[in-house]
Structures are given as C-alpha cells and as structure tokens.
Amino acid sequence: ESVKNVLTSPENRILIKRMLIKCADISNPCRPLPQCIEWAGRISEEYFAQTDEEKRQGLPVVMPVFDRNTCSIPKSQISFIDYFITDMFDAWDAFADLPNLMQHLDNNFKYWKGLDERKLRSLRPPPE
C-alpha cells in the first residue's frame, strides 16, 4: 500500500527512476562474487591507467589511492561499500525488498574484509 502511495506522484516516480539508475550504475558490490571480483578488477585497472597517465603527463593525480604500486583493492572496495553502497541499498531494499542483492552485498563485503585482514592488496588470495 505504501509503495502504491509513493508511486502516485509524478515527482516520486521520477525520483525513483533516478535512484534506480544510480543504483544500477554502482551496483557491482551487489553482484554474485565472481562478477563482483571481475568488475572490481576492471574498474581498478581503469583508475590505475588514469593515475599512470596523469603522472606521465605531470598532471595532478585525481585519485592517488589508485596508484597501482600501493593500492589495496580490498581496502578500496570496503571503503566504496561503506561510504556509498550500504546506505543506498538499505534504503532501496526497504522500498523494493531485494534479499538476493543484499545477500551478495554482505558476502562480497566479507570477502574483501577477509582479504584485507590477511593484508592482501589483490583481487584474490594467492593459490594455495
């Protein structure tokens, strides 16, 4: 009933659509772990390349945390989840009930936390 009330207003429908687009844009931590790891690697590589190019051209480095020589991918993912994802998807889940996404988010956060606790900076643990 409350969802129907929210959807009756054109302004609310526009807001919901905008939020959905934003959530889709940053939803990687809510994917199954193999996809989350793959895309975290692709995104990190894009940022590493940007930082490399800024250094090469003598420009100010926009994201110094993404220096490929010092970056901890697990720490970057943990920070991203903590600062941007958790609250946004908690709100979205309260509105639309997304247990699968929220379970992936929890699993992925634990994965990155586990790597960080082991002081690993890579996408995956070393082979045993």
UniProtKB/TrEMBL annotation:
It comes from Nothocercus julius. SUPFAM superfamilies: HD-domain/PDEase-like (SSF109604). Gene3D superfamilies: 3'5'-cyclic nucleotide phosphodiesterase, catalytic domain. One of its GO terms (biological process) is signal transduction. Keywords: Hydrolase, Metal-binding. This is PDE8A phosphodiesterase. InterPro entries: PDEase_catalytic_dom (IPR002073), PDEase_catalytic_dom_sf (IPR036971). Signal peptide: none annotated. Residues 1-119 form the PDEase domain. The keyword Hydrolase applies. GO terms for molecular function: 3',5'-cyclic-nucleotide phosphodiesterase activity; metal ion binding. Pfam families: PDEase_I (PF00233).
